[in-house]
Amino acid sequence: MAKQRVGFIGLGLMGAPMAANVARAGYPLLVYNRSGDKAAPLRELGAAVVETPKEVAAGSDVVITMLSDASAVEQVLRGEDGLLAGGRPGMLLIDMSTVAPEQSRSIAIEIGARGWQMLDAPVFGSTGPAKDGKLGIMVGGDAALFEAQRELLGVLGKFLTHLGPQGAGAVAKLAFNLMVAAQLTSLAEAMTLAARGGVEAQKMAEVILASNVSSELIQRKVGSIVSGNFAPAFPLRHMHKDLGLMIDTGHAMMVPLPATAAIHELFTTAMARGRGDQDSMAIYGLLAELAGLR
Amino acid sequence: MAKQRVGFIGLGLMGAPMAANVARAGYPLLVYNRSGDKAAPLRELGAAVVETPKEVAAGSDVVITMLSDASAVEQVLRGEDGLLAGGRPGMLLIDMSTVAPEQSRSIAIEIGARGWQMLDAPVFGSTGPAKDGKLGIMVGGDAALFEAQRELLGVLGKFLTHLGPQGAGAVAKLAFNLMVAAQLTSLAEAMTLAARGGVEAQKMAEVILASNVSSELIQRKVGSIVSGNFAPAFPLRHMHKDLGLMIDTGHAMMVPLPATAAIHELFTTAMARGRGDQDSMAIYGLLAELAGLR
Amino acid sequence: MAKQRVGFIGLGLMGAPMAANVARAGYPLLVYNRSGDKAAPLRELGAAVVETPKEVAAGSDVVITMLSDASAVEQVLRGEDGLLAGGRPGMLLIDMSTVAPEQSRSIAIEIGARGWQMLDAPVFGSTGPAKDGKLGIMVGGDAALFEAQRELLGVLGKFLTHLGPQGAGAVAKLAFNLMVAAQLTSLAEAMTLAARGGVEAQKMAEVILASNVSSELIQRKVGSIVSGNFAPAFPLRHMHKDLGLMIDTGHAMMVPLPATAAIHELFTTAMARGRGDQDSMAIYGLLAELAGLR
Amino acid sequence: MAKQRVGFIGLGLMGAPMAANVARAGYPLLVYNRSGDKAAPLRELGAAVVETPKEVAAGSDVVITMLSDASAVEQVLRGEDGLLAGGRPGMLLIDMSTVAPEQSRSIAIEIGARGWQMLDAPVFGSTGPAKDGKLGIMVGGDAALFEAQRELLGVLGKFLTHLGPQGAGAVAKLAFNLMVAAQLTSLAEAMTLAARGGVEAQKMAEVILASNVSSELIQRKVGSIVSGNFAPAFPLRHMHKDLGLMIDTGHAMMVPLPATAAIHELFTTAMARGRGDQDSMAIYGLLAELAGLR
């Protein structure tokens, strides 16, 4: 059976290697990106590069979006060059961006009115797993639709799970990121408390890594506290955005999130003090500053 | 060389197996516990059981305390039957209880005035590692003193580390427990958000366990959310006590701990609503209740 | 000079008496409300009642909106029966609803593109001052435009102030409501602490009313704590909505609001536990419940 | 009937004018202060100045303490020159310091064992009311004892109230101060939000003062935000201490205080960043800094 034609929109740090995996797996691939130069490596892999989202829709059976936020997704959808202008009933949109479940559902309703189908399918894992096709993919939407796309999704991730109706993937992604933010912030609070109490960062890091709170995330991040190097893997401004979505979602669904709310305000402080382009772990740098350590 | 005589006070869930390990390692052992019946198994291992802390001090070179809080330590020290009444200059107290660094230093000053020495040496790891002699031990106090006690401490734990002067062990323990509380609470917030968003607990648990936020602690606890069984491994009231010590220590050392403060208030709510004797993971039960899920 | 023709949309608890004041002051008045029966008393005062926002626009020089939130404002603006469909360049919209400054500016941009002008002019004061024409009115937008509308606004409020460009009124309203929420919540925390400490509510109320923290707001609300009567003056769900706008605005403008964030989560808890239709002061009822007092 | 002999300990900013009022009212007065020079003005009013708390006790029927915290009270009580060494059964201690109810009760138990009686009687109002004898006095302890001391207390305050058993005054003081801290912090958050939103401080202040949230406290403090002058009326470090007592008391009595906890951490940040000797209103200066406004 011929493989379905795939469109891919959003060739950022995550999207570019993901699209490359789709091309390598032999899917006919159409790509669009606001800044054209990012598409060059994909052309080498056989992808066609087009000028508008509309053209992506016109030439694809499935369109994957991997964008920075819901307003970027809507911008791609709308307008005379937008996805909606080029698509037709029966098409499928797989949105892998991190958005609020409400935003995801609202997009699904809008495109559903045109006869499109949709899966929300945000991911966990950073650029390494994106390159290796080993992301985790959390899917919301029709279960049969998910099953039908297992092969394509399996090119992008090794952990695929269908979590429930439209928006279930989005909410699971926020829940997951909530835990990421909490681990980074509690690591920052713990290290600041220890530092003020006269314990060297390296020593405290050894304790944490030897204990049962150690996670892969903590293993990867604790070194940046010891070294003070906050080069961005996951920029703080993205986590700030996601924390805002968590709080908004908690507000809308009436779920109190008191610890997350405190963390959100800490990240807002970090943004206001110019740390948005540093790594999320720079929340330690902020806290050390607030504690008068630097 | 003859082994030093060890006294052990505090035969609770952690202390009893720790004292047993000391006995099995061949140290002459004197034990005291408020409730005598807990000492019986130690007698079978060759330990002598005495009636007062004073007698423990009189017959030991090193006294280990593993008690519920600083006021329990002080109660054991003072009075006419207290440790101080039976000790002599040159003795060593190894306090393995979880107390605030300020409390630890204040005890050190008090006993130092009588010519005793002290190490603060709280642990991480629960009853399993306590039985297996595989605790983590975080030590504050004189470095040479720590080296001299490596053999004895090695009977209790496999990860031994000297972290700095008196109180450094205590502050590291609080920093570590801060991360425990944050992982439990963020797991609770994440699972509540997911539940409200229509994601089954079992499904969300699989996502978390497959991701980079998964730690041994989370692996052990997530099942109790799925099952709703909060039988106490580490009772919530102990974590509440420790959270209070973190906040007090942050207050005294001027370290802002905004996320921990929010978590502290959540645990206070859990205490007020009768969950003190459940496991710390029952913070999920509370949050689900606050979110109107039950 | 003939008075300008005024349209009024939103005849709720606040809007109805405000529109009545406009009619009594002699302005030709057109009103529209989703549920027609609320317009009857205004008809008696000489107002014309129409079926659509479009007709309001067609027959007015200035349109005042007093609606529950930004999406209600947008709903009134859009569609084939919407305000925009009936208006013409040079018209003025005075939006007195409580919305986020970003929402207000986005509406201003949208209607500005059609040649309309806009003032954001939210109010403080409840139904009493609304009836007496003694509201406070906080205005953002063009200063000359504000001056030109002083007479009309003076019919609704006694304290009129121009605070800055478009959105300045909206942000001031949120800042003001932030203080309202904080006074209610701190009153609740204080009364709960006192109650647990054995001080009768009536006695603690007397202390507060005799002290320098007493405000008109506190004077009006403290009685409901003593009596336990939380009949809605300002329903808790409205304050919850406004708290969400504060947090979103703090997020967007990078202003950390840690106390407000904690209060927001408390109101979310109150919503989840079914208190949305009680008065905002029912936050005391929630807190007493959380503290195990009831 | 001869007036009872009064001892007064603690001649700080509040204590000095209070003691002076006692002297002016004709009570035989004995004073002690750690730094002797503060006692000079009282000598001119006829007070006798002694060298130790013990001498105060020996020459007084009632001893009033107005000290910075519980440890200062205990220091005055204990030792060979302490109050307890000079007193006798039947004496009365009126402690007007701000302490936790637990601390107050613990002092009461200690002195009760020697046959002394005690009232906890903290105050509200600052140096102005202290000079004018117009403080509020919140009393805990035996009701008959309170009645017997109405005349003396009436020299110090115009609002006297008996709130319940030992510790009731202390808890009411904390509850009151909780509201003070919340009004200052919410004023700071509101003014920062407004400033970021383009509203001038002076304009926002006018809105607040015209509204129903305005209290005497806010009227007095808002000017310092507009002017940026944070000369200490009530130093921030005192409020920080009191916030710690509130949180500890909430912990001990199981009263969740989530808003106060967030405020406490903000004050801890202000302490760490060197604002302890500024006025409590300098919490605005901190927040403006956190928001990147300065």
Q: What does this entry look like structurally?
A:
The structure is a homotetramer of 294-residue chains. Chain A has two domains: 6-165, NAD(P)-binding Rossmann-like Domain (Rossmann fold), CATH 3.40.50.720; 172-290, N-(1-d-carboxylethyl)-l-norvaline Dehydrogenase, domain 2. In chain A, helix 6 links the parallel strand 5 and strand 6 (117-120). Chain A has 294 residues and is of the alpha/beta class. In chain A, the strands form two sheets. In chain A, strands 3-2-1-4-5-6 form a six-stranded parallel β-sheet, sandwiched between helices. Chain A has helices spanning 15-24, 40-44, 53-58, 70-77, 83-86, 101-112, 127-132, 143-148, 150-156, 168-196, 201-210, 216-227, 236-253, 258-272, 283-290, and strands spanning 6-9, 29-32, 48-49, 62-65, 92-95, 117-120, 123-124, 135-140, 157-164.
Quick structural summary:
The structure is a homotetramer of 294-residue chains. Chain A has helices at 15-24, 40-44, 53-58, 70-77, 83-86, 101-112, 127-132, 143-148, 150-156, 168-196, 201-210, 216-227, 236-253, 258-272, 283-290, and strands at 6-9, 29-32, 48-49, 62-65, 92-95, 117-120, 123-124, 135-140, 157-164.
SSE layout:
Four copies of one chain form a homotetramer.
Chain A: E1 6-9, H1 15-24, E2 29-32, H2 40-44, E3 48-49, H3 53-58, E4 62-65, H4 70-77, H5 83-86, E5 92-95, H6 101-112, E6 117-120, E7 123-124, H7 127-132, E8 135-140, H8 143-148, H9 150-156, E9 157-164, H10 168-196, H11 201-210, H12 216-227, H13 236-253, H14 258-272, H15 283-290
